[in-house]
Structures are given as structure tokens and as C-alpha cells.
Amino acid sequence: MPEYKTREQKRKFYDSKAWKLLREDIKKRDNYECQECKRQGRVTIDTNEYSESAKRKKIMLVVDHIKELEDYPELALDPDNLETKCVKCHNKKHGRYIHYSKWRKKPKWDDEWW
């Protein structure tokens, strides 16, 4: 059973042909919609916007492992352990989401800034 503990091991997995093909199948199965948004009554779909700076299509949706790859390597390619999520929901799940209001600078005159 392969392990996916290091950054290199994960990168090798995510660059594999098997993952790339399955990822497309999962997005198609989920109708190119974020499943987390859907559970909350919202609709977030994939777009075909192009990023000039990155020279590629903007990434709006990702395929997420419900049970983490690192902890459950045997479920790495199990379709029942995968779901489509928008980048925002995916980042929230992994603690990488910061609300935009946290980026605002503290006004000079506001002593009670959170």
C-alpha cells in the first residue's frame, strides 16, 4: 500500500494519470457543482474563465478526498470517498480560508478593532 505522507509522495499521486482521469469523472458525476454549497442551498459551478497571469483556466472546482489521503491511502482512488468542491469550501475544510474582512487594515482612529 503506497503512503502519502510527504509532499513528494502526494505530488506524485496528484500528477498521476489515474488521478487526473478519475478527477474528471468525479466532476462530471457531480454535475460540475460544489457539493458542499449544494448541501447549504447554494449553487457554485465551474466556469471557463481564463487567467492571463497564470496562462490557464481559472480553477473554480477541485475534487476533495472526504477521508484524507494521508490517513486513508487505501481510499485514494475510491469514487465514494471523493466529491467536487469549490476552492472556497475546500480551503475552509482545510483551515486555509480567511474572510476578506480580516485582510482590512485597522483604521488609525479605531481602538476597538477586533
What attributes does this structure have?
single chain; 114 residues; alpha+beta; two-stranded antiparallel sheet; 4 strands; globular
Mind explaining what this structure looks like?
With 114 residues, the chain is an alpha+beta fold. It has helices spanning 7-14, 17-29, 35-39, 87-93, and strands at 50-51, 56-57, 61-65, 82-86. A two-stranded antiparallel ribbon has the order 1-2. A two-stranded antiparallel ribbon has the order 3-4. It is globular, with a radius of gyration of 17 Å. The model has no long low-confidence stretch (mean pLDDT 87).
List the helices and strands and how they pair.
Elements: H1 7-14, H2 17-29, H3 35-39, E1 50-51, E2 56-57, E3 61-65, E4 82-86, H4 87-93
Antiparallel strand pairs: 1-2, 3-4
Q: Can you describe this structure in just a few lines?
A:
The chain has 114 residues and is α+β, with helices and mostly antiparallel strands. The chain has helices at residues 7-14, 17-29, 35-39, 87-93; strands spanning 50-51, 56-57, 61-65, 82-86.
Mean pLDDT: 87
Structural class assignment = alpha+beta
Q: Which blocks of ≥5 consecutive residues have pLDDT under 50?
A: none
Strand proportion: 5-15%
